[in-house]
Structure formats: structure tokens, C-alpha cells
Amino acid sequence: MRWIPRLRFRLAFSLVLLLAAVVPVRAQDRLCDPGNEDCRSILINYIRNETQAIDVAFWFMEDARYTNELILKWRAGIPVRVLIDPRANTDYPLNAQRLAELQAAGIPMRKRLTSDILHWKMMLFHAQNVVEFSGANYSADAWRPTTATPYENYVDEAIYFTSDTAIVNSFRTKFDDQWIDTAGWTNYANVAGSLVRQYGVFGKDPSLNFPPEENYRTRSVKAYDAERRKIDVMMYRITDRTHADKMLAAVSRGIPVRLITEPEQYRDASRMWHAWNVDRLYMGGVQIRQRAHQGLNHQKSVILYDQDSAGGDQPMVIFGSSNWTSPSASGQLEHNIFTTKSSIVSWFVSQFERKWNNTGGILENVDFVPLPPDAPANPVPADGTGNVATSVRLTWNGGPWAHLYDVYLDTNPNLATPIAVNLAESSSKTQTSTFSYTVPLPLRSGTRYYWRVVARTMALQGRSSPVWSFVTAGSPPCAGKYADFDGDCSSDVAVFRPSTGTWYLKNSSNGSTAGYRWGGPGDIPVAGDYDGDGRADLAVFRPSNGVWYIRYSKNGSTKGMQWGGGGDMPVPGDYDADGWTDLAVFRPSTATWYVLSLRTGATTGVPFGVPTDVPVPGDYDGDRKTDIAVFRPETGTWYMRYSSTGTMFSGQWGERGDVVVQGDYDGDGRTDPAVFRPSTGVWWLYRTSLGPISLQWGGGGDIAVPGDYDGDRRTDLAVFRPSNGTWYLWLVAGITTGVQWGGAGDVPIIARQ
Q1: Largest CA-CA distance found in the chain, in angstroms, rounded
Q2: Cα–Cα distances in Å, from 205 out to 164, 166, 236?
Q3: What pTM was estimated for this model as a whole?
Q4: Three-state secondary structure along 530-595?
Q5: Tens digit of pLDDT for each residue in 547-561?
Q6: What residues does 740 pair with on adjacent strands?
């Protein structure tokens, strides 16, 4: 109950204090660097020397020395008021003890109510006409060196004491504003009677900045934009991109920018946008160093060296409690100063140069080196998942530091080429949020896919996830391909006998045989899955009239379609990845490819090659679409037009006299260039994933008939020997076998991709 008489005492003194406050005095400024000075002793001496009133406001107070001294002054009859924010107790439990001590002593206390915190760190000594404010919290380690060696172990701060009456009066008024505010504040302890001002109402010194009423960001940005020479920054936390953007803009217009920042913030997951901004600044040409000494870099200051075009430099320093964060700009209660006082500017310049150049006898700061992100984790589909839809959305957690992603997806576990690059996180990212990417093309059914994600920071430091896999739902896409007449994903041994127009099939699934009359002399067999039912259909191309005659396996129905003409070469394939074999011809006279999609009816004409080229269609880029490609015998060069990108690739593989036998020999979902050399019986394979290899299989007079005869999705070496009607198969597993099927004059059905 001692507060009421003290209130009366203060009210009686109000006129005297008011008059004293407006009497001009010689301004004195004192800056203290806790790296080599005992700033705590200076502050405690002010507390001890005060004879009229002390006002205190803080985010947190941990050091009991301050509460002890304040309580002693209170007990000595000196009024003390304290503004607090108990929400700090969660992260700073010692603060709760200090608040309890002040409360138990009977000191009046009011607490912050709004969603944004009280971030002031100030004390006002009325009789001494001094205010202290800075970014330094009232903790044991923030106000003096921890060891006897200067700059070895300390908290970077710039603690400001001033008796500049305009500044002190501004704080008198701002403190009173908060004390009597009943919307943003409520009584915490020991407040009796009406809430009244203890000082007069003074105009604010124009150098001061008090968020949230005044926007720190807006005023700072105006100064950044005006800078004509250089900018030096010490900043504990940088999560507001506007400040970073303005530094990058300054660099782009030729203004050098140096930054000293805090490494703990760089890897504080709860402040992950700090790293995003620092990495961007690094990539944008800002020179960055970071704390190397023991302790913490908690300072918030910006030195601007020339603020206008007048002759000579017009410097300014911005410092106080605001970090480069959105709450510090216009949410939290902050106090900052934008000062052009030459003595203050000189002090900050000297301090920065010492820290930057390590001239204090200790390695205080080192060059910033960007760190990589965490490896992406928690994949969806999960590793090993089956029955995944062919339209797939890939999802993962990139961790707090990744902001860019490259996605790799393939049927080959040796993932080398990304399907998407530089996928960017949005501003809604959190440390636990996931990122998703929808694969733009439908995947193959019944197929195992491998995928991984490479995460990168804004400094382009990368880290890869493990390789994950999943299996898509449905039947494997090999069904109906590679001369697969029974739909078991294995090529069947089959021949076409032109003399009678008869097809003889030997099914791999059960060994059954069948014969069908379809076609005649002069027809070219072009088996394929023309109705998308997973089984190859009997089909011939008749060069004399350019008609394709198809006998559908689904129901035995037949159809004739004109597509092409005399001199055209049939090149059927699935050019649109719809699961249906399309009609296609290569016209040597004009070196043009003509494609008709059986499912959609769409037609395409593409000039590609020269008249002497041999067409070699295949899926060379692994996108499930047949690519247009040619082999040029005179040079042994392959030319491929990737359907996925429209770009052309070429490479030399083979020579004149070789027979083209393209196929997927390594099972990676891509067609490999390959030739069979009849003169030696050697197969020359250029496997896209496993590298080149040559193998001897067959001899003179043999016809190369590559196909996937064991259903392992890899093309096997095989030859048909007309002299004895035998098929000789060399399966990828190393198994060799001979199958008698057909005879002289028969045309072996070559498995096509």
C-alpha cells in the first residue's frame, strides 16, 4: 500500500519535473560495447544515483542484479514503474523469477495484452535526465565480457545512454502513453488508483522511431534507397524480405553492402526465413561475415555513409531494438533511432571496422559459408508402395532450409536426368510443411518407378534424398508389345509365310501354337497392339496400295486403312503414348514421317532424315512415346528426335552393312542404339544406362530378331536361322536356347518397341 503516497509525492512534483524536463541542457551521448566494457556497472550506477523516479520496460530480465538494485531504490522511497510481457517466461524462465521479485517488493507493474510483444529494453532516470535503450536484454551475459580477454566471449550490442533532453522527453511521453493505455495493457501487480501521466506531454524527437505506431521498415527503406556510397549492417535476425531485397537493390546499383550476422539464427528452424534471406544476400553479392567469437551477435544496426547529394558525406546510423522482421516493423513495441550525430556515427563505424577486420586481437568474425539443406524425407508414395495410380502426385518434406527442388523419376534406379528443376517453395512454407509435384505425363501401368529429390537452398547448396521406389497399378505396359500375341509381356516366336499369307504363332505363356491366314505375297508384316487390349494384333502393310490390314485379337474383327503408298516404309509405334500402336510410314523420297493416331485420328507429318536413311523408331527418351529416328549407313550415325522436348540428338554407332537392332537392352525404359554385324555375328549395343558392349551371337545368313523373350523388360539377343528354321535366343539372365519354328522363306516377326 506504499504506492499511493508515492503517487501523491510524484504528483506534487509534476510541475517541477515538467519544468526541469524542458530546460535545455548540454546533450551527452554514451555508447557502450559489452565486448570490452562493463556496461552493466554503468547501468547499475545510474540506478543507484537516481533520486526522483525510474521507469523500466523490457522483453525479459534474467540478471537479479538489476531487480535487486531496483528494489533497493523502491524501498528507499524512489518511485519505480515497470512495463513487462510475461510471455517471455516460456523461453526465458529466469524472467518469471525476476518478475516475482519485483511483484513481491510492491513495485507497480503493467503487462502487455496485444498479440504482438513488448520488445523494449529501456530504463529512464528522471532526475538524471538520462534514458538507456538498445537491443540488449537484461541478461547476465549481454552487458559485459564473460572472460577477462576483450572480445573473446560476449554478446554483440551497442548500448546507448543519452541525456539529450529531446530524446529523454520523447521516452517520458512514450512511457506514459503505454502506462495509461487500457486497451493494450492491463495491471499486473501493485497498481492502485487511477492511471495518470507522471510527466508532461512532449513532442517526439524526429530521429526516434517507435513501432508499431511508426513503421520501422518504411522509414528504413527510404534511407536505404537514398544511400549513395555504402551500407554496413549488423543484424541478429533477418526474416523480412523487404530489407534483404533493398540490400540486393543497393548492390545492383553499385552500392557495396557488408553484413555481419548470427550463425545460430542461420540454423534456427523456428526462424527459417532468416537463412533464406541470408542465402539470397550471399548470392546477390552482399559481403557477409558471421560471428566466430563465443557468445552471440544480437546487435541491430545499419550504417549509411551518404544520404544525399550535397557536398561531402551525409552519414546516418539506424540502431535500437528492431530486427529485420515483420513484427519488428509494425507489430511489436520497439524503440529505434535514425541519427546523424557525427560522434555516434564515428563510434559505429569504428566498431564495425574492428569487428569486420578482426583488429581487436581476437577472431571475432569469419567469412560466411552457406550450408546445405536437410535431405528430403517422408516421401509419398512411400518407399516400396504398390498399386499407385499412373497419374501420380509426388510429395515430400524438404525440411526448413530447402527452397528449390529438382525431381528425378525413372524406371532405372540410376537416376541421372531430372524431370523437373527449380521447383520453388511458396511463402507459406513451414519447417514441417510438405511440397508436392504432379508428374505431367501418365506413368506406365504395372511398372516400378524410382525417384529422388534434390533439395537446394537459395545459395544453391544441395542435398539429395535417398532413392525411393513405387509400383504403379494395372498390367505392365509390355503387354501387347514386342510381338506379344498372348499378352504375357514376353515376345512370342512367330513367322509370316508370304507364299500362303499365313502367320504361325508359338505362345510363350503356355507353349500353344496357332496359324492364321492374313495377308499375302508382297505384304510386309507389321504386328502391333492396334486396339490397346494388351495383345499384339496380326497386321500387314501392302506397299502396292498403301493399305494396312489389321486383324484384331480382341474379337477377330478386321479392318483395312489406307495410310502411305508405294515406296513408303512402315514404321508403326505408339507415337502418342496412349497404349495403341499408331500407323506410320517413312517416305524416303521426301524423308518425311507420316503418323496417324488410331485412337484419336490425329495426323502428323514430320520431315526428318535423308532419302538414304534407315528409319529406327523407338522410345529413346523414356517418355513412353515412340520417337522419330534414323540410322545413316554411310556414316554409321544415329539421329533421334526426342518427343519429350522436340530436340535432336545424334551419335555414331555402327557402320555400313550393319543391321539396325534397336531395343531396350538394359531395361531402363529407353531404346538403346544397337547394330548386328552379319559378317561377324557380333551385336554392338550402346546401352544408355550401362554403357556400350559387344557380344557375339549368330553368324552369316542369320536374321537378327531381338525381343523380350523372358519377360524381364530387357531386350534379348536372338537370331532366326532360315536354313533350319531355328530361333537361337540368348536371354539376359545368361540362358541360351534354340526353338525350331518356321523354315526357309518365312519372315520372322521382329519384336517392335
Answers
A1: 127
A2: 10, 6, 26
A3: 0.70
A4: CCCCCCCEEEEEECCCCEEEEECCCCCCEEEEECCCCCCEECCECCCCCCCCEEEEEECCCCEEEE
A5: 999 999 888 999 999
A6: 726
